[in-house]
Amino acid sequence: MSMRVTFLGTGGAVPTTERNPSSVLVNREGDRLLFDAGEGTQRQMMRFGTGFTISDIFVTHLHGDHVLGLPGLIQTFDFNDREQALSIYTPAGTEEDVDALVHAADNRPSFPVHVYGVGPDEAAVRRDDYEIRTFRTDHDTNSLGYALIEDDRKGRFDREKAEELGVPVGPKFSQLHEGDPVELDDGTTVEPEQVVGEARPGRRFVYTGDTRPSARVAEVAADADLLVHDATFADDRAERAGDTGHSTARQAAEIASRADAERLALTHISSRYAGDVSDHLEEAREVFDGEAFVPDDGETHDVPYPDE
Fold this sequence. Notes:
seven-stranded mixed beta sheet
């Protein structure tokens, strides 16, 4: 089951010719989930060929570089004759502001748009085999991060062992893999744990939005397969990062290291660094042993299962 992350916007508050404001698209086996929608997000989606079939949008906070793309995106949906309902999740207390963006310039979407306020440590979305949970971040406004957490998967089925125990090839294999015991023709009962291994963990994708380094983020990102973390500044602007509610690349990497994350994407890069993110990478890799990278706009990364 695939999970693909496309970085539509990796820049900070001031866009550059190379980096658009914040927006990340996750395609999990056809569920297309958008995290933040900075100015020009709809153009980025066209530019990088992601299409507009989005079911849910998750807003971290209401600073312009994370939400000013909503009016244009929703109007673009309308121009494409969208009929499917759209759900937007936003920090509790900001619903009216988001609704105003949805209807900016007297826009009246022809499809249903539902805006939901969510607090920290809630399941904003629960689907058959995953959920998206919220967590508090440390920015200078009402802000949340989001974690896509998959359920554990079934353990591996040992066909050879099952056949040794006399289980005939066919439906009884499926029964055992589903967790049900089966009775053989000779009256013997075979239990699932005899032929099915331990449950295997699902994947964990964590998106912080803007935040100072936070112990809560490290907790939520424990064993994350991909942590997308604010890294607005390098060490040369560490004091500025704290003053404005952001992190440095080194601080983001320290959080990833504490969390034992597999991969770290450093995003929300300040325009002051233009096209040179070498300091971000060097500083992050000094403290994080996993894979740290600064994605460019349009980069797509597959998120594999932990056991692959």
